[in-house]
Amino acid sequence: MNEAVKVQEYVYKETQGCSLHLKVYSPEGEQGALRPVVVFFFGGGWVRGTIDHFQPQSEFIAEQGMIAITPDYRVFSRHRTTPFECVEDARDAISWVSRHAEELGTDRERIAVGGGSAGGHLALCTVLLPPEVGQGPDVSGVPKAMVLFNPVCDTTDKGFRYESLGSRMLELSPLHHIREGLPPALLFHGTADRTVPFRCASDFRARMLACGNECELIAYEGRGHGFFNPGRSEGEADHEDTKRNAVKFLKRIFG
């Protein structure tokens, strides 16, 4: 455990007879001024995953003087849910973080969302989806930045389609809800990703820019899906590079 980082756990939601927790990573010591915060959603295809997926990134962010939060959410392997319930939980998590900002030592006006793969999809959905799509509170105006690791930007046949969505695939497709006035986004994506094709990230960036939004895409040549995780065959360089670039982006946006 990193002694420079304090970790606290809270229940943000009770549903289907289970408690959904989130972990808060903050700098150890005096609280001082309210800090920027980024909420990371784990990946796993809406089927599996763990709340500790983004622990290394969260600890690093806390070391840099910010706060990171990693919520759990319902997944198919444990709760027999669909991506719609995942989106609902993600919205509820962001709402909880916003409502408890002062208690957590965070600045309500400097909340970012992030995640990897399906978790990146959930982060995007909290910002891009109109309130009438799915359940949960409308939190689209809460996040002020997005940090995304090979995210699922497109849930149609041209992207990463989740079969059970069927005819509703467009509803949860962030690419198809891009509009002007969105917060800045930073994407990390491997060019050899066979799970979530690189072109999805490229298309997302192009559409964001066309709508006048800020969007940076950092391509990792020859890297596959999940390249940003520690312990991959490519070594730690990509993991460390994505962490540094994420912090650089957040500090530029939030000051």
Explain how this protein is built.
The chain has helices at residues 55-63, 76-79, 83-99, 101-104, 118-128, 198-210, 237-254; strands at 5-15, 18-27, 35-41, 67-71, 106-116, 145-149, 185-190, 215-220. The chain is of the alpha/beta class. It has one domain: 3-Layer(aba) Sandwich (Rossmann fold). The chain has an 8-stranded mixed beta sheet with strand order 1-2-4-3-5-6-7-8, with helices on both faces. InterPro entries: AB_hydrolase_fold (IPR029058), BD-FAE-like_dom (IPR049492), GDXG_lipolytic_enzyme (IPR050300). GO terms for molecular function: triacylglycerol lipase activity.
Compact description:
This is Alpha/beta hydrolase. The protein is an alpha/beta fold.
Shape: globular
CATH topology-level name? Rossmann fold
CATH class: Alpha Beta
Biggest sheet statistics: 8 strands, mixed
Count every helix, treating DSSP H or I runs of 4 or more residues as helices.
Answer: 7
> How many runs of DSSP E, i.e. beta strands?
8
As a percent range, the share of helical residues equals: 25-40%
Low-confidence stretches: none
Strand content: 15-25%
The CATH homologous superfamily is called Alpha/Beta hydrolase fold, catalytic domain
What is the spatial order of strands in the main beta sheet? 1-2-4-3-5-6-7-8
Keywords: Hydrolase
Family: Belongs to the 'GDXG' lipolytic enzyme family.
GO molecular function: triacylglycerol lipase activity
Domain BD-FAE-like: 22-126
